[in-house]
């Protein structure tokens, strides 16, 4: 069954989605989702879903990714709850017409931007933060007054089940549906016309989604991935850098779109960083990381095999152990890595951190700029001028100086990629705006025709002075 939460909506024999989509469209046309009260009710329902099913979600995340309770709480549940609370607090302010400045010809008029819901929007989510990356965009879509089709990842199976079976009970099913499936079903779904598509996933599938959307001229937000560089300057405290880099590289077992993908530093800094990284890894995960409750597992066998293949690049300096019986890969650091090796060709998305050597900042900046624009970029230095130079001379979706991760915890900052790492952004009010059409509105007086008549032909040189 490809449609969850759609009880009473029989699927057609040829197209399992048609009836559901038509139902949602009818709801949108009826205007039901537009009032602030309705939107707030949906958001409160979403909040109740999180509160009442916290344990269920934590169990599902543990089954899918061996996520620790701490990680589930911080990076999946609390962050989604904060997003809901923010939207509830600001909903009416965000919905207000935005007055704009006027020119001479419109001085007497009313000019404003109205934030209108698009209509029927599709959200497609990945498996690595299967609650967060499903609910965060959903908050924006519902706050903006849309009807929503949600397609969770079929790979994080336990979480998908909770989202399909439990979440719809907390939302108005006339405006919301969960659709299940992998590439084939999603491909079928994408043949339908939506008014906006919000996709989080790989650049490869991002292209498939955008191609399908183009057939209907549907606007897309693409939250993609890539290789996030992390420059470490000679002028740094190696232990502080190692703590921060190790924490975020191995958080969620490295399966994080904004994790530092590789380090660029001089051979001297590498020599100082290696013992510091080893010390951080041992402190975080113990002498046997496999026994640590804080280290997760690789999502499935396919990704495990892919990552195990990458362990043969360069030379293993830390970790390197793996066991396919429980898809375990130790927190690993690789050195002597060549730019041409597989580990530098694809997004790693696992607990493997290659270090590449550069001779100074200029070479690091060149290295970064030769590649696709990343989703995130990190620079560590005690010298703020170095951090500012990396920021000024590169481009990326987001940037964080002297840490990883933290920039995306601020809902006052937009989160999104640039170039190959994506287009559009969300979080906080940016989500509301992403899921709203910004309608240009000018209301004029039906009178005052004598003044306005100046623009009509026949034109004389006198008119041109206006
Ligand atoms: P993915 O692209 O394989 O899958 C994402 C979604 O697309 C899933 O729901 C999946 O069912 C669907 N899908 C897969 N193949 C499809 C096809 N052929 N046609 C239509 N739909 C299809 O990504 P993933 O493996 O789930 O997630 C990992 C990727 O996501 C990484 O590249 C990572 O960087 C990226 N990511 C980005 C962000 C971000 O916020 N920018 C966040 C998390 C993950």
Bin the strand percentage: 15-25%
| First-last Cα distance | 65 Å
Largest sheet: 7 strands, mixed
What is the helix tally? 16
Coarse morphology: globular
- Total domain modules: 2
Keywords: NAD, Oxidoreductase
GO biological process, one term: aldehyde metabolic process
GO cellular component, one term: cytoplasm
Family: Belongs to the aldehyde dehydrogenase family.
List the helices and strands and how they pair.
Elements: E1 3-4, H1 18-30, H2 36-52, H3 54-65, H4 69-95, E2 98-99, E3 110-117, E4 120-124, H5 132-143, E5 147-151, H6 157-165, E6 176-179, H7 183-189, E7 196-200, H8 203-215, E8 220-223, E9 229-232, H9 238-250, E10 262-265, H10 267-285, H11 301-310, E11 315-318, E12 322-323, E13 328-329, E14 332-335, E15 352-357, H12 361-369, E16 376-380, H13 384-393, E17 398-401, E18 422-423, H14 429-434, E19 436-443, H15 449-452, H16 461-464
Parallel strand pairs: 4-5, 4-7, 5-6, 7-8, 9-10, 9-16, 10-15, 14-15, 16-17
Antiparallel strand pairs: 1-6, 2-3, 3-19, 8-18, 11-14, 12-13
Domain Aldehyde dehydrogenase: 25-439
Organism: Sus scrofa
Pfam families: Aldedh
Fold and architecture overview:
The protein has helices at about 20-30, 35-50, 55-65, 70-95, 130-145, 155-165, 185-190, 205-215, 240-250, 265-285, 300-310, 360-370, 385-395, 430-435, 450, 460-465; strands at about 5, 100, 110-115, 120-125, 145-150, 175-180, 195-200, 220-225, 230, 260-265, 315-320, 320-325, 330, 330-335, 350-355, 375-380, 400, 420-425, 435-445. With about 475 residues, it is of the alpha/beta class. The chain has two domains: about 20-225 and about 425-435; about 230-415. The strands form four sheets. Strands 1-6-5-4-7-8-18 form a seven-stranded mixed beta sheet, with helices on both faces. A seven-stranded mixed beta sheet has the order 11-14-15-10-9-16-17, sandwiched between helices. A three-stranded antiparallel beta sheet has the order 2-3-19. Helix 3 (about 55-65) crosses helix 4 (about 70-95), helix 3 runs antiparallel to helix 6 and helix 4 (about 70-95) packs parallel to helix 5 (about 130-145). Mean pLDDT is about 95; it is low at about 5-10. Nicotinamide-adenine-dinucleotide (NAD) binds near residues 151, 154, 224 and 347.
